[in-house]
Structures are given as structure tokens and as C-alpha cells.
Amino acid sequence: MKKFLSIKKIIYFLIIISIGYSIYSYYFNTKSKTTTVTKEYSVGTGSIENAIKVTGQAALVDEQKLKFNQVWKVTKVYFRDGAKVKKDQLIAELDKEDINNTIRQAELSLNDAQIKLEDLLNWAEYKDILNAENNTTVAENKILTLQNDLTNLLADKDNKLKDYDNQIEQKNLAIKNNLSDIKNKELQLTNLKNELTTLEITEEKWLTDYSVDLTKTISDAYTNAKKQIIDIENSIFDADEILWITDENKNKNDSYEMYLWAKNSNTKTQAENNWREANSLFLSSKTSYNSLNITSQTPEEITIFLNKLLDSYDKLIDLGKSGQEMMNASITSSSFSQSDIDSKSTTFSSMTTSAQTTYNTIKSTITNIEKLTDPEVKKAQSTNTINSKKQSISDTEIALDKLKNTTSIQLQNDLDKLYSDREYSANNYSSQIKQKNLDITSAVNSLEYAKESLKVVQNWATAVELAQARNNVAKQKLSLVNAQKNLDKYELTAPFDGTIRKIDFKVGDNLTADEQKFIYIENPNLVEISATLDQLDIVKISLNQSAKIIFDSYPNKEFIWTVSEKDSTPVSTSGVTSYTITITLDKWDAEIYSSMTAKVNILVESKKDILVIPASYIEETPKSKYVLVKEKWQEIKKEIKTWITNDTDIEIIKWLNIGDIILKKITSAIKSGSSGLIPWGRTGWTSWSSSNTSWGFR
């Protein structure tokens, strides 16, 4: 019993110690721990827009100055400054009393002339003279029409028969050519059969020689690569002696460093960047070369190495070009002559030429290896070539049969029909020509009758008297028309819907020839936004390209319009070249004035209904991009391919689907007790620990 009590006391003692330690650890131990929260995002579709953002300036357009073309007194002004007018609405007018009197006088003179003409014509019925004159004119016109018809018929007959003769000649030639085609097709068939026999022998021999060609191509590529690596290493060293990038060469150009790239320091930066990239790619390709088996290499191994070497020479070409640009930006001095500049420029020029030649050689070698890599492909190609040749023989046999039967018969039938159609057409034209000559004879008789009838009705008045009376009527009509036209000079009307900005004169003013007084009218809704873009952005802009405009005066209002003008004339400011674009828009009821500024976003790239995810969910390595994907409560790294992006989102083009759940881990630090226990709760002791993974929600 005592032993049992001793054990019980020991148990109570251990429990008390555990409780005390836990309380101490919770409240006093502040050791920092980290916790990671995982956010989820469900992949879906969306839109991405990229825009060029510039600042533009507004200018009101379509203003016009109106001026009277007549010197006289202003009698009426129908509008005030600031008034709105409609197109063709009368704005102001001069005193019209004199011009109206002139018009009235012209009307009276015309009336007198018409009365006098009617009096002369009263000797005969005016309608009779008109009818007689009209009948004569109609008869003359009918003869002219019939004669033109006859001329056209004769020409049509001649052209039609010549056309039939040409068709007959062409058809005879076609028959002759068909016979020649039959002979050629027979010869072609013989040649195709001979070519098939030769092709089968050649393809069989090629498959035998294939393995030898592949081995030799790989061996030659490996041998040539050693010299190509030495060449690029020498070129990089030569460039370093000029650029002094490495420690070995950094002090070699102290005497002329300040004169290098003096005109444009950016050329030096570009050349140095190209040198470093070329050197890095060279070292990678050299390492790849050293890893190859000396005695034998697989097509895959040699291709991987050659592609790396190709990248090295590609960047070496860029280095040579940027080096030339850097030397062109240099200036001469007593210690750095033009010949020194030319010598170094020649170094870079030779580097570019040599690198380009080697680049093309390596590219050709890679292509040859790829062609020789898969003999089964070549064997399939060989089979296809032979089958194609057999198909050509079959097609030629069918074509030959068609030429001998179908085509020959059809050509002869066409020729017989042409002869028949020509005979029918000749007879038909002869009948029409005969009838047209009869119609002309009848029309000549009708004209003679009409002329005699006209002489009868004209005997009451002489031709001179009637002509003078008619001329007088025409003269008075012309005077009236001219007077009415002058009336327009006494009025000013609106050329378009707009607002009158200013009127220089008032009612009662006498306008003189040496005064310049106008009515200024403008279209208040039409605004031009001008903005300047640099040479990198201007090439992305085209006419009618969509743009969003937000004026500083209206930060919450967005105008959607398009580019209306693109000026290709360059403007240089402080060495920076820029170009001007114009957006013409209707401002509607907004109060926008000249010289107001606006933010202009010109849309250059837009996609809708594409796979889009937040860019923050993507992790990158030097060679790839990937995301964490949740699949059956597991985290899987999945490589992705992306395309366009904006400030927040990015387009996914491969290896993600709608509905996929992607994850983003957010790690933060917390303070916790080291025991992993929290104080006693209503349900007893509760265990807690930091977790590296917990599922969250978007």
C-alpha cells in the first residue's frame, strides 16, 4: 500500500512539472518559427491588353472665317457671339434693295423679250412651227442613227466572221497540237518507265551507303569543331584586348580609353554585354565539346554540342557588329589616330564576317546530320518517291488515253460546229444589212417631207427676225441668272453645324474693300489630340488603331477613339528622335479647350478568351517556367509555356487547362512555445505545430 502511494506521488509530481514547463514555454520561450500559407487559384479564361502610354495635347479644329465678297452696308445680323448655328443657316446679310431692283429689272426685260417673240410667232401657230422643226430634227436624227446602225452592222459582221475564222484556225491548231501532245505523252511515258527502273536501283544503293555517310558527317563535324572553338576563343580574346573587360587586358587601353565610344557611350555598353554573353556561350560549348567521346559520338550528342556552338557564333556576330558601332563612335587624338580606329574597326569587321561564315557552316552540318539521323524516314521517303513515280506513269497512261479518244473527238466536233455557226452568222448579218438600207431610204423620204412642211409654216416670219427674237430672250434670261447669282454675295450662311466664336461687324457698318472683317465659326465638338512617340513605339502604331483618352480635366471620363493621322516626319530633340500621331475625336458635351492635356493609351496588343493566370504564381529557372499544381491533394511542379503579359496577368499556351488548381506559397515568421502545447482548454491539452503546407482559398 505504501509502495502504491509512493508511485502515485511520483506520478503527481511529474504531472506538476510538465504543467509548469509547458506554461513557462508558452509564455516565456519566444523562439521564432515559420509558417507557410498556400493560396489556390483556379485556372480560367480572360483577356489581356497591352498599350503604349503617352501624354497628348488637345487642339480645337474645323474653324472657318466667313467674309462678305461685296462692299456694302450691313442690314441684318441674326446671331450673337457664342450662338450655335446649323449648316446653311443664314447668319448675316447686306442691304439688298439695289440688287433686288436689278433682279426685278431683269425679270421685266425678259418678259418683254418673250412677248415680242410670241408676237412674231403669232403669224403662225407657235406649236405648228415647233412641231415642224421637231419633225425635221427627228427625221435627221433618225437618218444619222440608221446610218450609224448600218456602219456598226457592217463592222460587227466583219469582226464576227474574223472571230469565227480565228477560232477555226485555233481549233485546227489545237487538233495539230493534240497529235503532237499524243506523241510527247507516249515519249514521256517511256521516259517515266525508264526513270522508275533507274530510281529503284538508285534508292537501293543509297540505303546501303547511308550508314557510312552519317558516320563520316559526325566525324568531320567533331574534327572541325576543334578549330572552330579555337577560332572563337581567339576572337573573344582579340575583342577583350580592345574592350579591356578581363583582368588580363583591363589596362591595355589606358592611353586611348577616353577617346573610345566618345560620341555614344551606349555602344560601349552594348559591346561589353555582347562580349560577356559570347564568352559565356563559348565556355558552355567548350565544356560540351570536352565531354564528348573522342573516338565516337552519337547524332544526338554531336547535335546538342553543335547547337551550343551555333549560339556562341551567333552572339559573336552581334559582338562584331556592336564593336564596329563602338569604333564609329570613337574620336581621334594625338595618342589615338584614325588609323588606330580603322585597325580596331577592321578587327571587329573581320570577326563578324568570319563568324557569319562559320555560323552558316555549322548550321549546314546540323541540317545534314538531322537528314541522316533516321534511316527509316529516308526509307519511307524512298518508297514514297518510287510510288509517286508509279502514280505518274499511271496518270500519264490515263492522260494519253484521253488525248487519243476523248480530246480528239471533241476537237473535231468543235471544228464542225464552228463552220456551221459561221455560215449561219454570215446569212443573218446579210439579212439585217438589207433591212437597214430599206429603213434609211424611208427615213430620207420622211426628212424631205418634214423640210417642206417647215417652209410652209415659216413663211409668215423671216428666219432672221425669229432668230433675233430668240437671241434676245436668251440674253435676258442670262441677265436674270447673273443678277440672281449676285444675290448670294449679300448673304453669309453657316458652312457646317457649329458655334459662332466672334463677329467683327454689326448692323449699320459700311464694309469697304480695304477692311478685313470676319465671322469666326467653329465646330466645338471636334478636337485633335497630338502626341509624340519614340522610334520604338511609332512602328507599332497604324491608322484606325484603337485608343483610350482621359483628359486631366475629366479624370473619371474615358473617350474611346482611333488614330486618325501618323506623321512619318522625324523630330529630334536633345539627340532623341520622335514622331507625331493625331487622334481626332468628338468631345460631345465635355468642355475641352485647346492646349488641354490628356493621358493616351494606344492599344497595340489584345487577346480575349485565353487561358490567364496571375503572374505571381509563376516560378522561373534560367531555362524554364513552372507552377505548382494541386492534383489529388498532391503538389506537382508542372512546366508551362507563356505568351503575352501585362502588369498583373500572363497568357498560358501549353500544359495547363481550364479548372486546374495552381498554388502559391506565402511564408511568414511567428513566435511559439517550444513544447508544441498550448494551455489547458475545455477539451484538454491541444497540440499545435507549424506546418509547411496548408490549403487556402482564393
UniProtKB/TrEMBL annotation:
It comes from the Bacteria. The keyword Membrane applies. Keywords: Coiled coil, Membrane, Transmembrane, Transmembrane helix. GO terms for cellular component: cell envelope. Residues 147-202, 466-493 form a coiled coil. The chain crosses the membrane at residues 10-28. It is found in: Cell envelope. The keyword ATP-binding does not apply. This is Uncharacterized protein. It comes from uncultured bacterium (gcode 4).
